[in-house]
Amino acid sequence: MDLNFNREEEEFRQKVRRFLEENMPKSGLVGTGREGREDKAWLEKSKAWQRKLHEAGYVALAWPKEYGGQAMDPVRQTIVNDEMVRANAPYLAGGSGLGMLGPTLISWGTEEQKKRYLPKILTAEEIWCQGYSEPGSGSDLASLRTRAEIVGDEFVVNGQKVWTSGAQYADMMFCLVRTDPEAPKHRGISYILIDMHTPGITVRPLVQMTGDRGFNEVFFDNVRVPRKNLVGKLNEGWIVANATLFHERNMLGSATGSAQRFNRLLAIAKKIKRGGRALTEDPVFRQRLADLEIRVEAMRYHSLRQLTDQIRGKNPGVEGWINKLVGTELNHDLATAAMEAMGDYSMLSRDDGAALDHGYWPYEWMFSLGLVIGGGTSHIQKNIIAERGLKMPKSR
Question: Full-prediction pTM beyond 0.85?
Answer without folding.
Answer: yes
